[in-house]
Amino acid sequence: MNYKKILQKYRKDRTRLIEILKEIQATEGYIPEKGILSVADELGLSRAEVEGVISFYHFLSARPLGKYVIYLNNSITAEMAGREKVARAWEQEAGCSFGQTSADGLFTLLETSCIGMNDQEPAALINRVVFTRLNPEKVSQLAGWMREGRAVEDMVEETGDGANNHQLVRAMVRNNIRKTGPVVFGDYSAGQAIRKALETTPEGIIDEVKKANLLGRGGAGFPTGLKWEFCRKEKGEQRFVICNADEGEPGTFKDRVILTERPEMVFEGMAIAGYAVGARLGILYLRHEYSYLRRYLEHVLQKMREQGWLGQNIAGRGFAFDIEIKMGAGAYVCGEESALIESAEGKRGEPRDRPPFPVQKGYLNLPSTVNNVETLATATQIIVHGANWFRSMGTPVSTGTKLLSVSGDCQKPGIYEVEYGLTIKELLEMVGAEDTLAVQVGGPSGNCISEAGFGRKICFSDLPTGGSIIIFNRSRDLFAVVRNFLDFFIEESCGWCVPCRAGNVLLKKKFEKIASGLGTVQDLKEIEAWGKIIKSTSRCGLGQTSPNPVLTTLSNFREVYESRVSKEADFIPEFDLNRAVAEACAITGRKFQEEQEHA
Amino acid sequence: MSKPVIATASLAGCFGCHMSFLDIDERILDLIELVEFDKSPIDDIKKFSRPVDIGLIEGGCCNAENVEVLRYFRENCKILVSVGECAVMGGLPAMRNTIPLKECLEEAYLNSPTVAPEDRLIPADEDIPILLDRVYPCHEIVKIDYFLPGCPPSADLIWEALTALIQGRPLRLEYELVKYD
Fold first, then answer.
1. SS3 B148
2. Residues A68-157, CATH architecture
3. Smallest Cβ distance to A583: which of B68, B133, B140?
4. Interface test with B, best of A581, A591, A595 (most B CBs within 10 A)
5. ipTM for this model
6. Chain A interface test: which of B38, B78, B82, B132 (most A C-beta within 10 Å)
7. Which CATH number does A401-476 carry?
8. Predicted confidence (pLDDT) per residue in A66-81, tens digit
9. Of A134, A294, A345, A366, whose CB has the highest number of CB atoms within 10 Å?
10. How far from the centroid of its chain's Cα atoms is residue B136's Cα?
């Protein structure tokens, strides 16, 4: 294996480390020690730094993997759609359990967090190809093809709707656009916005976006115009526009659909942002799970360059801006903007301390604006149609529309473009949800709403959401939902802050104690207290929201917890002495009899 | 009014916390004015002779006997305090928790280079307390009322906590008392 050739291809650029490692893995199936040493040597890094990057990302591996790697999604909607049977079918076909590689080296079975297919579960990535709506029969068919040595790409029999059918995509993914709205799915012709933008001043663009009161669509809701203004005013030799396409919040898949159906609108938004802040380069940070869109997006970028919407002289007005795509490698925390920047620089995606904020010191420590896919697409439409048009939709503060990714127990899961201010009740009717027990708004990091809250509104001042809406009907076990979400955060914590790394594990243990009927009122109090500690002492949004699955269900479904805890006992141990000595008895051949009275 | 009664025990610990307790130096004279000792290694009383007000536990639980002693303390003490890292978290002995018990025993009694070939045997004498699958902190076994951190907690910390409990006043933990670096 000639590692030097790969390194030369990436000009020994340290910010390309993740791509270099991915290419080695694509060729060899994993990243062998020799590769690690060679990369470390050529890039002037320590072995530990390279290994640290590999171990950080879910889709990089320093141990050999099978020819076909099955990453079966483990999100809650997958569970609801029969994931367990699919998982057992894979194990039977491969003859090994999850986390292992089959003896013949053909299969590796791995679990993975939400891959953005919540409305078409159970889904899996096989190598880099997406397979949706799996069932045991389908698994057996796929495994048969694998034994015949068929290429994964050739296992996709039927492609999805819209651009999923494009020859460069050819994915079985479905868009499931159920309701279009006037912004993201409104009238649009590429090039119009950037042409209009270049007729005004950068300050004028920022003013228009501020006037529209565009708030970040990723979920945090920071005013986009203000972010651009901060970035523009910051001194720096160079500035960057970064599009955050790392949507990893379980239940969100709207950025996938935007990038499939409206990529020009996003790229145009990046160019407009570039003009506004004074950047010449934009980076689309695309999550690994959406690798199947990469060639198509590169093609769209090339087309836009040819049409003069990107490049050295955009719309003939002398403005230069281009976009490159950087790939993630599987880490939820990289959706956090400073972690995303670290990752784009080829490092472990650990969040940075802030301040300085990315607008001050972002990519390569230069001023950078990081905006969500939907935010940038929306900005494009604001420039075309004006702030007043935009403000005529939604609520006075939460202006415009929002894309919701709806999944779970409803007749019509998929994408809905709705005006802000929609109530949960209205949404449930729209999507055909019946007998609803709970609605998870904003994914695991958001809020689990009970019927008492169905009159609440989707907007920044009431129920903010990056777009994830998961519906659970009354046949569902709320504890199974919370368990799934807690496991997600334990898996995805980057490990930097102890309260997040260890606290979430302790929180889960305490939760399981309650779930198993051994909880007390004191345990409930401790869960609340610990949750608050984790939230207030973690430095990024992951830790700050990770206890929400427990805390919000505890506040909105308190009776479910109270029915499981003892009202009388002030302490119930999980500890069982006979169980705890069983192992030692087995090893030594002794029998244990608990002494009734102390000697 | 009779003096409050105190009891202490060292479970899976190193007696370091007891030694730290003795580090209160001449204050031990004040202590015997303030309290009486019941079951404790300090006076070598083996069994509880009366209800105890405050029990101080050093060490976590690594074997069945530790569990029995801890439960015995809980039954006989109004207030039970975990003293030191091992009681609070499992401490150093809990380092074995990441390794299966069988491997630990095999490493110690069969494979260790210091074991003479003729001595290779995992002890199974019935007089030896049976090991638990892992080392448990005390609060996973019984209800613990207070926790004193440290390895060991300093004499001043133990003194301050104990006198506060006896006198029923709020604990004043100066920063220096709970700072360990």
1. strand
2. 3-Layer(aba) Sandwich (3.40)
3. B133
4. A581
5. 0.92
6. B132
7. 3.10.20.600
8. 999 999 999 999 999 9
9. A134
10. 12
